[in-house]
Design goal:
The complex is a heterotrimer of chains A (261), B (329) and C (94). Chain B has 329 residues and is mostly helical. Helix content of chain B is 65%, strand content 2%. Chain B has a single domain, classed as Ferritin, core subunit, four-helix bundle (Ferritin, Up-down Bundle), CATH 1.20.1260.10. Chain B is globular and about 75 Å long. The two termini of chain B are 37 Å apart. Chain C is of the alpha+beta class and 94 residues long. A three-stranded antiparallel β-sheet of chain C has the order 2-1-3, with helices on one face. Classes of the chains: A mainly alpha (261), B mainly alpha (329), C alpha+beta (94). Chain B: It holds the Pfam family PaaA_PaaC.
């Protein structure tokens, strides 16, 4: 893919396609996961809240895929990029593809992701790239709400009943090992960070730690030691769950090649 | 919708002939009835049953379409479908709230749905087998629902009418969304067109059944009409639906699966073949392919959500206690 | 069903300059969740810029059986309305 981007255009940064695709994949895959809840939430009010968050993420993914496709300049569109790549070509963070688990895991995953993306987009509103600026201006508000919504739930579940507290602790044990990857730079994104187009992920650690620390303190949760942090999404090295997600998501596009929907 | 003080209250009214006549006079004068107003027990019961069924239909209705959210074929379709199914949840929520003004709680209504005591629209007991089903459901099932719901915006019971106004406003995109999907398929590859025709074949008759039994066999109709809970008969609405839908199918180049369908110049509407009411009653009584699955899915969501709801309540108590302790200092 | 999640009434200000208007109800365990749910349920189409949530049980309502004594006595106090007074047209708008 890097090669495609390199030969695609002259003006834009050669790594832009890959870097934008990474972001798009994060949002699509996590949005897809959230959409799986629709109709199955613990209460009707959450049956509305979860799709709202999913729609925010899918909306951002669409803008980013569209931008990536135009960067590439090979006639591919947002759906080609979203639906017609193979597993190893998806660049999303591992945490985005983790199965929903129970409501505690879903809310914690959302908090982890949104707490990094809120400061990310906040920094990106000053990007010299107009599309990134546009996405950032919208997404920063959406992520602020996701932090609040998911954060309030993590607090309630952590400091609710014995059962909910145990489930919340299990969610932390399950998901915390994927959080290191939130702050890693890929080759593509590193190049754009250097050009000042995208925010540096390393700078997000402080704000993220503060938010998680505040929520965990209220929730009665502890930030665990992670002996074996998991990473690899940016290089297409995923867990086994992603392939199943893609098989489902891509079914129609694969079964009827070239059709319009 | 704040008559919630009434939950569990004794709604009994002494129903003298004078009281009933006064009530009927209010209805006849197109006055709206509001939650705390005195009303005949039968009126209250009819509304609780109807609004409850309506709410359950929205909630169970999330499942067949939800079945395709993760397989929607494009990002645009995925977002639209997700927003649509989310709307159904919202509509269920508004309707439960309307019913709650009559002295039942959402929990009670949910228990009745899960125990099989309360009914919901039978259409949702059919499976969604292809992407075309999503289009046809939006076009026909939402189309039929809208036909049913528009008169309900003028229903005599205020909270129900207000909920319906909001619902109808939001639902206006649902049918268009569905029709656009079917249109895209009908103009697509031969395989896509076949998919669309197959979906129409499977959903046409169940959609007609959505208006309920023929007027001759409908047990609740007359009194509901007098109380202006209902404004048109089942057969009147069904006829309106057929007359509106057949030309839409023709436009798509799809054929309606009814060999007896003919335009009747004299009545200014279509004549149609006989509806298989045995199938209708079989599905109502639990014999549809998906009846068991739908309730099982709802029950699973409800049971597996219990610990979340309990945790939120437990936390709320702790918060309140902490606040009180702080205030006492 | 041990205990039920409380009911809240939702009021929304459609835009600044207008007052909050009752739009519906929802269930939530506490006021923070109620506000979030109100946002997610009742403002999906840009319906508002401000939300109030009030526990339903905190509302005291007038009794419809007393509506006659509450509201009908004002019907004949027509001198409270401008049209009660006769001012010649020449005076102009007043």
């Amino acid at each position: 893919m890097a090669e495609q981007a390199l030969t695609g255009g002259s003006d834009p940064h050669p790594a832009l396609f890959d870097a934008v695709l990474e972001l798009a994949d994060d949002h699509l895959i996590l949005g897809h996961r959230l959409s799986e809840w629709c109709g199955h939430a613990p209460m009707l009010e959450e049956d509305l809240a979860l799709p709202n968050m999913a729609l925010d993420l899918i909306g951002t993914a669409r803008t980013l895929y569209d931008y990536a496709a135009r960067q590439e300049g090979k006639g591919r569109g947002e759906d080609d990029l979203a639906f017609l790549r193979v597993e190893r070509e998806y660049r999303n963070l591992l945490i985005c593809e983790r199965p929903n688990g129970d409501f505690a895991q879903t809310m914690l995953r959302q908090l982890y992701f949104a707490a990094v993306m809120e400061p990310y987009w906040a920094a990106a509103v000053d990007s010299p790239d107009a599309v990134i600026r546009g996405v950032a201006g919208k997404a920063v508000k959406e992520m602020a709400y996701h932090v609040r919504h998911a954060g309030e739930w993590v607090i309630r579940l952590g400091d609710g009943t014995d059962e909910s507290a145990a489930r919340m602790r299990a969610a932390v044990a399950e998901l915390h090992r994927f959080t290191g990857e939130l702050f890693e730079e890929s080759t593509a994104s590193a190049a754009l960070v250097e050009g000042g187009v995208l925010p540096a992920r390393g700078d997000l650690r402080g704000p993220w730690d503060r938010v998680i620390g505040m929520v965990f303190a209220e929730a009665g949760l502890e930030v665990p030691e992670v002996p074996f942090p998991q990473t690899g999404g940016r290089r297409g090295l995923h867990g086994e769950a992603l392939g199943h997600l893609l098989a489902e998501m891509q079914y129609l596009q694969r079964a009827y090649p070239g059709a319009t929907w | 919708m704040y008559s919630q003080g009434l939950i569990g209250a004794d709604g009994a009214t002494e129903e003298t002939p004078e009281f009933l006549a006064r009530f009927q006079a209010r209805i006849d004068a197109e006055e709206k009835i509001e939650p705390n107003d005195a009303m005949p027990e039968g009126y209250r019961r009819t509304l609780v049953r109807q609004i409850g069924q309506h709410a359950h239909s929205e909630i169970v209705g999330m499942l067949p379409e939800g079945n395709w959210i993760t397989r929607a074929p494009s990002l645009k379709r995925k977002a639209a479908l997700l927003a649509k199914v989310q709307d159904e949840g919202g509509h269920g929520l508004y309707l439960y709230a309307a019913a709650e003004t009559l002295g039942v709680s959402r929990e009670q209504m949910t228990e009745e749905l899960l125990s099989g005591k309360a009914k919901y629209s039978s259409i949702f007991n059919y499976p969604t087998l292809s992407w075309a089903d999503i289009g046809v459901i939006g076009w026909l099932v939402d189309g039929a629902a809208i036909m049913n719901q528009i008169p309900l915006c003028r229903c005599s019971y205020g909270p129900y009418a207000r909920a319906m106004i909001r619902i109808c406003k939001e639902e206006s995109f649902h049918q268009r969304q569905g029709y656009e999907i079917v249109m895209t398929l009908a103009r697509g590859t031969p395989a896509q067109k076949e998919m669309a025709q197959d979906a129409l074949n499977r959903w046409w008759w169940p959609s007609l059944m959505m208006f309920g039994p023929s007027d001759a066999d409908s047990q609740h109709s007359d009194q509901s009409m007098r109380w202006k809970i209902k404004r048109f008969t089942n057969d009147e609405l069904r006829q309106k639906f057929i007359d509106a839908t057949v030309p839409q199918a023709e436009f798509l180049g799809l054929s309606v699966p009814d060999p007896e369908l003919r335009w009747n110049e004299a009545k200014g509407g279509y004549d149609h073949g006989p509806i298989d009411w045995d199938e209708f009653w079989r599905v109502v009584k639990g014999g549809g392919q998906m009846n068991v699955d739908r309730i099982r899915d709802r029950k699973k969501a409800w049971d597996e959500g219990a610990w979340v709801r309990e945790a939120a309540l437990a936390h709320a108590e702790k918060r309140a206690a902490r606040k009180a302790a702080l205030a006492a200092e | 069903m041990a205990h039920e999640t409380p009911l809240w009434e939702v009021f929304i200000r459609p835009r600044n300059g207008l007052s909050h208007k009752h739009v519906g109800s929802l269930h939530a365990a506490d006021e923070v969740l109620a506000l979030q749910a109100a946002r997610d349920v009742y403002t999906r189409r840009g319906e508002g810029v401000s939300i109030w949530v009030v526990p339903s049980k905190a509302i005291t309502a007038s009794d419809p059986d007393r509506a006659a004594e509450d509201f009908e006595p004002t019907a004949d106090k027509i001198y409270r309305h401008p049209t009660f007074y006769e001012i010649p047209d020449e005076v102009g708008h007043m």
